[in-house]
Amino acid sequence: MSTAAPAAPAAQPHSNNIAANPEQIGGYCGMTSDGVEVDANDDASCAFAMAIYDAAIAQAYESRAGASGNIVLATVNDFQVTSSVTGQTYTLSCFVGTAGQALICSQPSSPYGNSGGAVFNREKTGWHSILG
């Protein structure tokens, strides 16, 4: 008989973060339960964008030099999210835009830049106070 402690349950997504049209590809997907505007990239479903949000806000973030040399807040590690539409698992990373209001998540290995990801806008309070 094993005496090992049971594994901790997986983090549950926000119960109110449901896209109005989960199979829609690209564009505005709605708002999260905490008031964040969700926009899926052109090749991502709204259901996947909502799943990215849940995973992204659970990540650790750090300040580092961005592509143009400015300091940005970015995920410490890449993370994985499974699409409920395709069943595939994708590796993503996120960073906060220089104005601090957009959390931008995409596949780091994508030759197309923001492929397979989403943008999350928190216009009233920005992301630095939440993730920083």
Provide keyphrases for this structure.
11% helix; disordered N terminus; two-stranded antiparallel ribbon; 132 residues; mainly beta
How many domains comprise the coordinates?
1
Radius of gyration: 15 Å
Q: Using DSSP, what is the number of strands?
A: 8
Q: Strand arrangement, largest sheet?
A: 1-2-8-7-6-5
- Return residue spans where pLDDT drops below 50 for at least 5 consecutive residues: 1-15
Distance between the termini: 44 Å
Helicity range of the residues? 10-25%
Helix/strand class = mainly beta
Q: pLDDT average, as an integer?
A: 80
Task: Give a short account of the largest sheet.
Answer: 6 strands, antiparallel
The total of helices stands at 2
What is the strand content? Answer: 35-45%
Order of helices and strands: EEHEEEEEEH
Shape: globular
Short account of what is shown:
The protein is mainly beta and 132 residues long. The chain has one domain. It is 11% helix and 36% strand.
Q: Can you tell me about this structure?
A:
The chain has one domain. Helices cover 11% and strands 36% of the residues. The protein has two helices and eight strands, in the order ββαββββββα. It starts with 24 loop residues before the first strand and ends with a helix. The N terminus is likely disordered.
Q: What are the SSEs and their pairings?
A:
Elements: E1 25-31, E2 37-45, H1 46-56, E3 61-65, E4 71-75, E5 79-82, E6 89-96, E7 102-106, E8 118-121, H2 128-131
Antiparallel strand pairs: 1-2, 2-8, 3-4, 5-6, 6-7, 7-8
